[in-house]
Amino acid sequence: MIHLRTWLKRGLLLGMVGAIMVAGLTWNAVRLVFQASESRIVSVAHARPATAAIVLGCRVNGETVSGCLEERLTTALELYTTGRAQRLLLSGDHGTRGYDEVNAMMDWLVAHGVPQAHIFLDHAGFDTHDTMVRARRVFAVSDALVVSQAFHLPRAVYLARAAGIAATGVAADPPRGSVCRGSKVREPLACLKAWIDVSAGTGPRHLGPSIPITGSPCASYDRASDKAGCR
């Protein structure tokens, strides 16, 4: 019984030390993320022109985009139509045939008047880190406006700049507030993961052949995307 109590006390102590260490690392990661993105998050009206806007994916229901994703697409559309972004790189989860964020995003933008020839698709943007590394290494993006909600942008800009992209974040929040602002609660741990990925030099789950953002987007399309007759 004494030995059991001793082990329980040791386990509790180790658990407390571990929790304190994780809390400290998380606080440090959040601090670094916000320092890296300081003064680099703007509204559409204050965004300076860039070669591309990187639009981060979010939940879709079949071919229907979620409210959170529609906020991002509406902001990307404004960046494009005002000449602040020459190309749009849509990055999201298309890891299975039955779930496809990027084609739903493209269909929305094409329906709102964006030429398909100016839209590139990243089917393997499984998280923000993968998106930014692939944007630089696959799509050769060197400067970009990153489109997402304000709570997400410090981490997104941090990861973009760590990947070698001169990035500015553009907040997609409407005046009434974002429909997905509740997702903010996960940002501290997401910042910790981002810092670990950058520190460890973690690569994306998939790379692939080069598809420069300044060229043709055809190589970024699959059969569902190819409505412009690339193939």
Topology:
Blueprint: H1 2-37, E1 41-42, E2 50-56, E3 60-61, E4 64-65, H2 67-81, E5 85-91, H3 101-111, E6 119-122, H4 128-137, E7 143-148, H5 153-162, E8 166-171, H6 187-200
Helix pairs in contact: 1-5, 1-6, 4-5, 5-6
Task: Please give a structural write-up.
The chain is an alpha/beta fold. The chain contains 6 helices and 8 strands. β7, α5 and β8 form a beta-alpha-beta unit.
CATH class (first level) name = Alpha Beta
Order of adjacent strands in the largest pleated sheet: 1-8-7-2-5-6
Would you identify the CATH architecture? 3-Layer(aba) Sandwich
Q: How many helices does DSSP assign?
A: 6
- The proportion of residues forming helix, as a percent range, comes to 40-55%
Output the CATH topology. Answer: Rossmann fold
Q: What composes the largest sheet?
A: 6 strands, parallel
Distance between the termini: 73 Å
Shape: globular
Indicate the radius of gyration in whole angstroms: 20 Å
Structural class: alpha/beta
Proportion of residues in extended strands? 15-25%
What is the arithmetic mean of pLDDT?
89
